[in-house]
Amino acid sequence: MLMKKAVQIIGVPIDLGQSHRGVDLGPGALRYAGLAARLEQLGYEVYDSGNLKVPVRESLSSERQNNYLPSIKAICEDVCLAGQKAVEQGHIPIFLGGDHSIAVGTIAGVTQQQPAGVLWIDAHGDFNTMETSSSGNIHGMALALLLGQGYPDLVEIGGPGATLQPEDIVMIGVRDLDDGERQNLRESGVTIYTMRDVDERGMGVVASEALERLIHRERLHVSLDVDALDPQASPGAGTLVPGGLTYREGQLLMEIVADSGRLSSLDIVEINPILDSLNKTALTAVELAASLFGKRII
Protein backbone atom coordinates (compact mmCIF):
# COMPACT_ATOMS: atom_id res chain seq x y z
CA MET A 1 0.00 0.00 0.00
CA LEU A 2 1.39 3.43 -0.95
CA MET A 3 1.98 5.82 1.93
CA LYS A 4 0.07 9.08 1.75
CA LYS A 5 2.11 12.22 1.45
CA ALA A 6 1.93 14.30 4.62
CA VAL A 7 1.15 18.01 4.76
CA GLN A 8 1.63 20.09 7.90
CA ILE A 9 -0.36 23.30 8.37
CA ILE A 10 1.31 25.96 10.50
CA GLY A 11 -0.60 29.15 11.31
CA VAL A 12 1.31 32.38 11.88
CA PRO A 13 -1.28 35.09 12.75
CA ILE A 14 1.08 38.07 12.63
CA ASP A 15 0.05 41.59 11.69
CA LEU A 16 3.13 43.39 13.01
CA GLY A 17 4.92 43.70 9.68
CA GLN A 18 2.38 46.08 8.13
CA SER A 19 -0.18 48.72 9.01
CA HIS A 20 -3.50 47.26 7.79
CA ARG A 21 -5.14 45.45 10.67
CA GLY A 22 -6.87 42.13 10.05
CA VAL A 23 -4.29 39.87 8.39
CA ASP A 24 -3.84 38.11 11.74
CA LEU A 25 -7.22 36.53 10.98
CA GLY A 26 -5.91 34.97 7.76
CA PRO A 27 -5.11 31.51 9.16
CA GLY A 28 -8.63 31.14 10.51
CA ALA A 29 -10.14 32.25 7.21
CA LEU A 30 -8.16 29.63 5.31
CA ARG A 31 -9.13 26.89 7.73
CA TYR A 32 -12.77 27.97 7.56
CA ALA A 33 -12.53 27.84 3.75
CA GLY A 34 -11.73 24.12 4.02
CA LEU A 35 -8.01 23.92 3.26
CA ALA A 36 -7.42 20.69 5.18
CA ALA A 37 -10.46 18.92 3.72
CA ARG A 38 -9.48 19.98 0.20
CA LEU A 39 -6.00 18.50 0.59
CA GLU A 40 -7.40 15.32 2.15
CA GLN A 41 -9.60 14.89 -0.93
CA LEU A 42 -6.42 14.91 -2.98
CA GLY A 43 -5.00 12.04 -0.95
CA TYR A 44 -2.80 13.86 1.54
CA GLU A 45 -2.46 13.13 5.23
CA VAL A 46 -3.00 16.54 6.83
CA TYR A 47 -1.64 17.55 10.22
CA ASP A 48 -2.63 20.94 11.61
CA SER A 49 -0.18 22.26 14.18
CA GLY A 50 -2.43 25.15 15.13
CA ASN A 51 -1.08 28.68 15.35
CA LEU A 52 2.27 29.80 16.63
CA LYS A 53 2.06 32.28 19.49
CA VAL A 54 2.02 35.88 18.29
CA PRO A 55 1.64 38.84 20.67
CA VAL A 56 -1.19 41.30 20.15
CA ARG A 57 0.00 44.60 18.69
CA GLU A 58 -1.58 46.62 21.50
CA SER A 59 0.64 44.84 24.04
CA LEU A 60 3.81 46.00 22.26
CA SER A 61 3.61 49.78 22.56
CA SER A 62 7.29 49.96 23.47
CA GLU A 63 8.21 48.41 20.08
CA ARG A 64 6.13 50.72 17.92
CA GLN A 65 8.99 53.14 17.24
CA ASN A 66 11.22 50.38 15.82
CA ASN A 67 8.49 48.74 13.74
CA TYR A 68 8.01 45.80 16.14
CA LEU A 69 11.40 44.41 15.16
CA PRO A 70 12.07 42.43 18.40
CA SER A 71 8.75 40.58 18.19
CA ILE A 72 9.00 39.97 14.46
CA LYS A 73 12.46 38.50 15.03
CA ALA A 74 11.18 36.18 17.77
CA ILE A 75 8.21 35.06 15.66
CA CYS A 76 10.37 34.41 12.59
CA GLU A 77 12.75 32.34 14.73
CA ASP A 78 9.79 30.24 15.90
CA VAL A 79 8.56 29.92 12.31
CA CYS A 80 12.02 28.86 11.17
CA LEU A 81 12.17 26.12 13.80
CA ALA A 82 8.65 24.91 12.96
CA GLY A 83 9.50 24.73 9.27
CA GLN A 84 12.74 22.91 9.91
CA LYS A 85 11.00 20.32 12.09
CA ALA A 86 8.24 19.77 9.52
CA VAL A 87 10.79 19.08 6.79
CA GLU A 88 12.75 16.75 9.08
CA GLN A 89 9.54 14.78 9.66
CA GLY A 90 9.06 14.38 5.92
CA HIS A 91 6.09 16.75 5.81
CA ILE A 92 5.31 19.46 3.29
CA PRO A 93 4.77 22.58 5.41
CA ILE A 94 2.05 25.08 4.52
CA PHE A 95 2.44 28.35 6.40
CA LEU A 96 -0.70 30.43 6.83
CA GLY A 97 -0.09 34.15 7.35
CA GLY A 98 -0.38 36.74 8.60
CA ASP A 99 1.67 39.26 6.73
CA HIS A 100 4.54 38.48 4.37
CA SER A 101 7.23 39.11 6.99
CA ILE A 102 6.78 35.45 7.96
CA ALA A 103 8.68 34.43 4.81
CA VAL A 104 11.93 35.47 6.49
CA GLY A 105 11.32 32.58 8.88
CA THR A 106 9.53 30.10 6.63
CA ILE A 107 12.20 30.06 3.92
CA ALA A 108 15.03 30.01 6.45
CA GLY A 109 13.40 26.97 8.07
CA VAL A 110 12.67 24.91 4.98
CA THR A 111 16.17 25.46 3.58
CA GLN A 112 18.08 24.33 6.68
CA GLN A 113 18.66 20.84 5.33
CA GLN A 114 18.72 21.54 1.60
CA PRO A 115 18.46 24.67 -0.57
CA ALA A 116 15.28 25.46 -2.47
CA GLY A 117 14.26 27.64 -5.36
CA VAL A 118 11.66 30.25 -4.49
CA LEU A 119 8.70 31.42 -6.56
CA TRP A 120 7.70 34.77 -5.07
CA ILE A 121 4.19 35.54 -6.34
CA ASP A 122 3.31 39.09 -5.35
CA ALA A 123 2.08 42.44 -6.65
CA HIS A 124 4.92 44.10 -4.74
CA GLY A 125 8.66 43.69 -4.70
CA ASP A 126 9.08 43.35 -0.92
CA PHE A 127 12.60 44.58 -1.61
CA ASN A 128 12.72 47.72 0.47
CA THR A 129 15.33 48.40 3.13
CA MET A 130 15.34 50.82 6.03
CA GLU A 131 16.79 53.42 3.66
CA THR A 132 14.18 53.08 0.89
CA SER A 133 10.98 52.31 2.81
CA SER A 134 8.62 55.24 3.35
CA SER A 135 6.51 53.30 5.84
CA GLY A 136 9.08 51.21 7.69
CA ASN A 137 6.78 48.18 7.32
CA ILE A 138 8.87 45.03 7.51
CA HIS A 139 6.56 42.97 5.29
CA GLY A 140 7.80 45.18 2.45
CA MET A 141 11.40 44.17 3.19
CA ALA A 142 11.09 40.39 3.39
CA LEU A 143 12.75 39.45 0.10
CA ALA A 144 15.61 41.90 0.59
CA LEU A 145 16.19 40.43 4.05
CA LEU A 146 16.34 36.90 2.63
CA LEU A 147 19.07 38.14 0.28
CA GLY A 148 21.06 39.58 3.15
CA GLN A 149 20.00 43.25 2.92
CA GLY A 150 18.50 45.06 5.89
CA TYR A 151 18.14 44.51 9.63
CA PRO A 152 20.96 42.14 10.73
CA ASP A 153 18.68 40.58 13.37
CA LEU A 154 16.35 39.38 10.61
CA VAL A 155 18.99 38.61 7.98
CA GLU A 156 20.51 36.10 10.39
CA ILE A 157 17.32 34.14 11.08
CA GLY A 158 18.30 30.50 10.62
CA GLY A 159 22.02 31.24 10.43
CA PRO A 160 24.56 33.90 9.51
CA GLY A 161 24.45 35.55 6.11
CA ALA A 162 21.88 35.56 3.35
CA THR A 163 19.32 32.75 3.24
CA LEU A 164 18.97 32.91 -0.55
CA GLN A 165 21.06 33.83 -3.57
CA PRO A 166 19.59 35.89 -6.44
CA GLU A 167 19.60 32.91 -8.80
CA ASP A 168 17.35 31.04 -6.33
CA ILE A 169 14.43 33.48 -6.76
CA VAL A 170 11.87 34.15 -9.47
CA MET A 171 9.23 36.82 -8.93
CA ILE A 172 5.89 36.69 -10.77
CA GLY A 173 3.05 39.21 -10.94
CA VAL A 174 4.98 42.32 -9.88
CA ARG A 175 3.25 45.61 -10.70
CA ASP A 176 3.76 48.06 -7.81
CA LEU A 177 7.27 49.14 -6.76
CA ASP A 178 8.66 52.03 -4.75
CA ASP A 179 11.37 54.06 -6.47
CA GLY A 180 14.27 52.94 -4.28
CA GLU A 181 12.99 49.39 -4.28
CA ARG A 182 12.85 49.40 -8.08
CA GLN A 183 16.51 50.39 -8.28
CA ASN A 184 17.50 47.75 -5.72
CA LEU A 185 15.69 45.06 -7.70
CA ARG A 186 17.32 46.11 -10.97
CA GLU A 187 20.71 45.61 -9.35
CA SER A 188 19.82 42.44 -7.44
CA GLY A 189 20.14 39.78 -10.12
CA VAL A 190 16.71 38.36 -9.22
CA THR A 191 14.57 37.18 -12.14
CA ILE A 192 11.38 39.25 -12.33
CA TYR A 193 8.27 38.68 -14.43
CA THR A 194 6.06 41.74 -14.21
CA MET A 195 2.42 41.83 -15.20
CA ARG A 196 3.51 43.19 -18.55
CA ASP A 197 5.51 40.01 -19.11
CA VAL A 198 2.44 37.94 -18.24
CA ASP A 199 0.26 40.06 -20.53
CA GLU A 200 2.63 39.91 -23.50
CA ARG A 201 3.92 36.36 -23.21
CA GLY A 202 1.18 34.49 -21.38
CA MET A 203 1.29 32.66 -18.07
CA GLY A 204 2.13 29.30 -19.65
CA VAL A 205 5.38 30.64 -21.09
CA VAL A 206 6.24 32.64 -17.97
CA ALA A 207 5.63 29.74 -15.58
CA SER A 208 7.58 27.24 -17.65
CA GLU A 209 10.49 29.63 -18.05
CA ALA A 210 10.45 30.42 -14.32
CA LEU A 211 10.78 26.74 -13.45
CA GLU A 212 13.60 26.38 -15.94
CA ARG A 213 15.44 29.26 -14.28
CA LEU A 214 15.19 27.35 -10.98
CA ILE A 215 16.18 23.99 -12.45
CA HIS A 216 19.36 23.97 -10.36
CA ARG A 217 17.19 23.37 -7.26
CA GLU A 218 15.35 20.09 -6.74
CA ARG A 219 12.92 21.65 -4.25
CA LEU A 220 10.57 24.61 -4.74
CA HIS A 221 9.07 26.90 -2.14
CA VAL A 222 6.07 28.93 -3.29
CA SER A 223 5.45 32.18 -1.43
CA LEU A 224 1.98 33.38 -2.43
CA ASP A 225 0.80 36.85 -1.47
CA VAL A 226 -2.88 36.99 -2.38
CA ASP A 227 -2.51 40.55 -3.67
CA ALA A 228 -0.73 39.06 -6.69
CA LEU A 229 -4.24 38.31 -7.94
CA ASP A 230 -6.46 40.98 -9.37
CA PRO A 231 -8.80 42.48 -6.72
CA GLN A 232 -11.79 40.93 -8.54
CA ALA A 233 -10.45 37.50 -7.61
CA SER A 234 -8.88 38.51 -4.31
CA PRO A 235 -10.73 41.45 -2.69
CA GLY A 236 -9.62 40.59 0.84
CA ALA A 237 -6.03 41.79 0.71
CA GLY A 238 -4.69 44.79 2.59
CA THR A 239 -2.70 46.31 -0.26
CA LEU A 240 -4.85 45.93 -3.37
CA VAL A 241 -3.36 46.86 -6.74
CA PRO A 242 -5.50 46.75 -9.91
CA GLY A 243 -4.40 44.76 -12.93
CA GLY A 244 -3.23 41.54 -11.28
CA LEU A 245 -3.33 37.89 -12.19
CA THR A 246 -6.71 36.53 -13.17
CA TYR A 247 -8.10 33.50 -11.38
CA ARG A 248 -7.24 31.28 -14.35
CA GLU A 249 -3.71 32.68 -14.66
CA GLY A 250 -3.18 31.88 -11.00
CA GLN A 251 -4.56 28.38 -11.48
CA LEU A 252 -2.39 27.74 -14.53
CA LEU A 253 0.73 28.83 -12.65
CA MET A 254 -0.09 26.45 -9.81
CA GLU A 255 -0.86 23.60 -12.19
CA ILE A 256 2.45 23.98 -14.00
CA VAL A 257 4.36 24.04 -10.69
CA ALA A 258 2.46 20.92 -9.61
CA ASP A 259 3.39 19.16 -12.85
CA SER A 260 7.08 19.71 -12.04
CA GLY A 261 6.81 17.46 -8.97
CA ARG A 262 9.22 19.73 -7.09
CA LEU A 263 6.92 21.53 -4.63
CA SER A 264 8.32 21.26 -1.11
CA SER A 265 6.64 24.06 0.89
CA LEU A 266 4.14 26.92 0.64
CA ASP A 267 3.30 30.30 2.17
CA ILE A 268 -0.17 31.83 1.83
CA VAL A 269 -0.08 35.37 3.18
CA GLU A 270 -1.84 38.73 3.45
CA ILE A 271 -5.46 37.54 3.53
CA ASN A 272 -7.53 40.13 5.39
CA PRO A 273 -11.03 38.79 6.12
CA ILE A 274 -12.16 42.17 7.44
CA LEU A 275 -11.81 43.60 3.94
CA ASP A 276 -13.19 40.52 2.19
CA SER A 277 -16.61 39.52 0.93
CA LEU A 278 -18.01 36.16 2.11
CA ASN A 279 -14.46 34.81 2.59
CA LYS A 280 -13.93 34.90 -1.19
CA THR A 281 -10.17 35.46 -0.99
CA ALA A 282 -9.55 32.52 1.32
CA LEU A 283 -11.75 30.28 -0.84
CA THR A 284 -9.76 31.34 -3.90
CA ALA A 285 -6.48 30.66 -2.09
CA VAL A 286 -7.68 27.19 -1.11
CA GLU A 287 -8.47 26.36 -4.73
CA LEU A 288 -5.05 27.65 -5.82
CA ALA A 289 -3.44 25.49 -3.16
CA ALA A 290 -5.45 22.48 -4.37
CA SER A 291 -4.11 22.99 -7.89
CA LEU A 292 -0.59 23.37 -6.53
CA PHE A 293 -0.98 20.05 -4.73
CA GLY A 294 -2.16 18.19 -7.79
CA LYS A 295 -5.85 18.85 -8.45
CA ARG A 296 -6.61 18.10 -12.09
CA ILE A 297 -9.54 18.97 -14.31
CA ILE A 298 -9.52 15.47 -15.81
Short description:
This protein has 298 residues and is α/β, with parallel strands linked by helices.
Plain-language structure description:
With 298 residues, this protein is α/β, with parallel strands linked by helices. It has one domain (6-292): Arginase, Chain A. It contains eleven helices and eight strands. It has helices spanning 26-32, 35-41, 69-88, 103-110, 142-146, 152-155, 179-188, 195-201, 203-213, 247-260, 280-292, and strands at 6-12, 45-51, 92-97, 117-121, 169-174, 191-194, 220-225, 263-269. α7 (179-188) links the parallel β5 (169-174) and β6 (191-194). The longest helix has 20 residues, at 69-88.
Q: Any chance you could write out the topology, listing elements then pairs?
A:
Blueprint lengths: L5 E7 L13 H7 L2 H7 L3 E7 L17 H20 L3 E6 L5 H8 L6 E5 L20 H5 L5 H4 L13 E6 L4 H10 L2 E4 H7 L1 H11 L6 E6 L21 H14 L2 E7 L10 H13 L6
Helix pairs in contact: 1-11, 3-4, 8-9, 9-10, 10-11
